[in-house]
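Lab notes, practical 5.
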Amino acid sequence: MKIAFFDYVWTFAEPPKFGSGILCYQLALRLARGNDLIFYGSKAAHHQELEYSEDGITYRRIPNNFIDKILGLLYVLDDWKIFPAKRPFFTSILSDFKYYWQIAKDLQSQNCDIIQINFAFHVSPLIRAFNPQAKIVIFLQTEWLTQLDPKMIERKLKAVDLVIGCSDYITNQIRTRFPNVPCQTIFNGVDINHFVVNNEAKKNKKKEIKTLLFVGRISPEKGLHILLEAFNKVILQYPQVQLKLIGPEGKYGVLPIQMINTEDPYFQTLIPFYQGEYSDQLRQIISPNAANSVCFFGPVEQLDLVEHYQDADIFIFPSVWNEPFGIPLVEAMAMELPVIATYSGAFPEIVEDEKTGLLVERSNADALAEAILRLLSDENLSQEMGKAGRQRVVDKFSWEQISETLLVEFQKICDPTVK
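Output from the prediction step:
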């Protein structure tokens, strides 16, 4: 089977180190065993060639172009609210048009069986126009299909053979809004052979110093303001506890507010944190008692995250919005960390409350502090949850299993007799 993957324009055609491109790459890496796999992406400044192969994947690079640089200026229209809220510019065919046109045109000569589009659902009619014979699959990690104009979405989905949601939370919304669109849930995953705890190193760690860890974008919807409020309470009882926040800040970290579901009851609580720099507001929340115990670590390459999970005692993901999935949760569980998350989005599909971790109400600093204190005070419970979490990841969230499931779905849409 010949399969092509592509993502948004900011994904480079190379093995990625950060961001959503990692998900696409992990699947491509495994599907390339036994299939012909093409991975499209942008050409970075350091790239010398437009095509190269590695680990069975052929990377095809799309050069930067003047047309898209000019069209990119139109993104400001979303900030000015020129486009309707339900039809933002990024869903327009003009959004990075030349980039996607070059991919569509190149695909025409590749004669692929499957074309998987990650995130960029809006270009499916363009891809279909050049590739009428291919099966087109959309892999979604967001709620966009159910947040945007349903008539516009319905037109775009006519070009699609299958929509895959990264969680039942996403897929069930699509089924409700678009009952005639074929869709399936295929979870995101983790490399269970890379994210493995070193038990000997864990034993040698100083027991009296506990480390709480967050990994993700430093953005209002992630609920870090709630985490810091909770931490101010925790440190009064555990003065030596440390909090490490790993992830990009500023424009590389903050999700644009127009990408958050305005119908979410917690949306209004996030608006004040978009008035000014979020990271500055976070630093102002930290109490004097906690000032020397909070570390903003910045972004870390995915392969280097293991040492930070290894060093942690509890992983916390305090999202205020409905999280579509939550890759750091499964990474932390793979590393045998007890996790604390919120009753939001897909988190209850990942975390078994009271078994692999604890779930608390969204935007509730008191409940979050109570959960942290409970795990800090009960080493046996933390260890039991960590081991149960690792087993759940091995059983349900390994990239090997997920890629096999995806391949079966590809086979089904290419050959309806496959079951």
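Observations recorded by the TA: The mean pLDDT is 91. The longest helix spans residues 379-396.
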